[in-house]
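Q: Convert this sequence to structure tokens.
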Amino acid sequence: MTRRSRLLTTAAAGATAVLLLAGCGGGGSKPKSNDKITGADSGGESSASPSASASGTAGRPEIEMPSDLSYTFDWPKTGDKDKDAVLVDSEQSIKAVDLAIVNQDPLDKAYRFYYEGEAAAQTQQFIKAYVKAKARTTGSYRYYDPVVNVSGPSNASLVYCEDQGKAYDFYLKTKKVDKTPVTKNSYVLYSTQLQKNDKGVWVVVKLISQRGSSKCQP
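A:
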């Protein structure tokens, strides 16, 4: 999931990201931009951050990121088992996309574990854009203001903000880091639709984004 002022403005419109390579101030964005995101006006619950130790259970892939990439998830526990599971799996799905970019592999197994259908196809195009550019991301990302809803045993939605202000594109051949200034477009609102699969994993089936959303501004 990426993010920045960068290379490709919309690697895959309606997709999982508008590359870092394509934004302003921090990172590309993931999905389709300028769509109205439902649930953005709802308030989130707060408490302690959910544990993201989902790796290893239900066959989840291990996701180990390079030391120059870091993530902060200001996603408090809700106290609801299903909602907290959505948050934990969503953390892993975000990192899985960046791992595929680091590996320069549009078919990387980790992200395909967490994305299906439309979202998987969009994500693959997003990753391909980074591979074509021979680039990946570096720096730090922050995720905050989650609004999670579970409707029925296998359907959920998650709306959240991403701060790309300290994340940048890194070009593998030249070793150049494209440090862009922080602007309102460094803040992206995401909306995902998820389904629980037969392994009990909350997978992303649809993903859209709105760069520069007023909901995510500091």
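The chain is about 20% helix and 30% strand.
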